[in-house]
Amino acid sequence: MSISTKPVYTWRVVDIVVAAVVSVACGVIFWLWDQGYTGIQVVTAAFAPLSGLYSGGWLLAGILGGLIIRKPGAALFCELVAAVVEALLGSQFGVTVLLSGLVQGLGAELGFAIFRYRRWNLGVALLAGALSGLALGVSEVIQFFVDWEFGWQVAYTVFAVVSGIVIAGLLSWLAVKALAKTGALSAFAAGRTADV
How far is Cα of residue 100 from the mean position of the Cα atoms in its chain? Predict the structure, then answer.
């Protein structure tokens, strides 16, 4: 069953430590993901909104952290800390990644909050990925693509949502499922239940 009847909202030390580890690892992934963006811009030069399909890699921390920790604030915490690590590593996007981390983390957090932090199945992971992608798409259109025509802005946002669903939602859910099978998540509900 994918519903936890009594969610525990207080954070344990192990929650904080694992959230930090997930965040740092994802921050490194974000920085590596940054490196590929120049190539993506070249490939999508004829229709720039297609670059939204690449954006899901920057959404992993929130979904992954939320699925593992299963506490309010986990998605936001992980996405923000990962953005800080990305910035410290020298992101080509500078400190704007901090605002991105905040907005994208809030989008992921909303996906989990809709079900009051009681459901942790694939559908919820995909929804959290979609909402994080929507947050990314809207915020980036406002920050960076305000001069695009409206159709391009909508297309970019739709592609960001699709990327959030597939890259952040699906891949994070599969990663948690695989980690749970190894026993690495035994200190968490994600490692002890069949709903991952």
Answer: 11
